[in-house]
Amino acid sequence: TLQIGTHGWEFTGAGTITGEAPATGAVGIQTIKSAASAGSASGITLPNIGANKIIKGNQGNTTIIMRIKNDVTPDGNSGIRIGLSTTNPSSSGDPTSGIYFRATSGNWEAVTRDNDIQTTTDTGVAQSTAFKTFKFVLNSAGTSVEFFIDGISEATHSTNITSNAVMPYLQAQTAVATAYGFDIDYYYLKVTGLSR
Question: Do 157 and 119 form a contact (C-beta atoms < 8 A)?
Fold first, then answer.
């Protein structure tokens, strides 16, 4: 496990994380890659001390915004999952529970998953080597999640929304002996309307 920065982000898995030169409109790019080994997964997460989750899945109004791009032209052997999860990103495949975007071949999917039961929507938005902005908003009751790509609403889910504790999660995975990954510009998390 490698800690990144001062906020507690951790890199896990056998792959690599590399800082990249700034690009137009992107000043903090990191490249996350799986190892070049079939079934390998690597990624970054933001757990609290002791690798515990940091928020409840249905607590307050939760907004997540991420800006990423594929680091190479995607194919059916690569997998990317970005959002909130109960599972460490070095664990291959889908998490047990989470709210996230997934791209394993073709288009990005919106996913809500609770204890291995999921709801998915094909957004119709293809993976790309150009930056895209991904956003989802979970209502305070934990009963609805709306998914956006580049500011356009692509899906709304009201089923399989987890109430389990989750953490920010970004994962790169490969099905073959080739490393795959993505570049991330930023990850934004906001929770409002909490009652104490």
Answer: yes
**What distance lies between CA 179 and its chain's CA centroid?**
18
Beta bridge partners of 55: 166
11 contacts 181 by C-beta, under 8 angstroms? no
Contact 47, 4 (CB under 8 A): no
For residues 70 and 127, is the Cβ–Cβ distance under 8 A?
yes
Q: What count of other Cβ atoms lies within 10 Å of the Cβ of residue 75? A: 14
Burial class (CB in 10 A: 0-12, 13-18, 19+), 139: middle
The answer to whether the beta carbons of residues 162 and 97 sit under 8 Å apart is yes
Which residue is associated with the tokens 């990954």?
181
Please tell me the total number of residues recorded for the chain in this structure.
196
- Look up the pTM and report it: 0.91
Burial of 49 (0-12, 13-18, 19+ CB in 10 A): exposed
What digits encode the pLDDT tens for the residues 58-71?
Answer: 667 899 999 999 98
Give, in order, the Cα–Cα distances in Å from 131 to each of 73, 154, 172, 185. Answer: 13, 17, 16, 8
For the residues 9-22, what does the mean pLDDT come to? Answer: 87
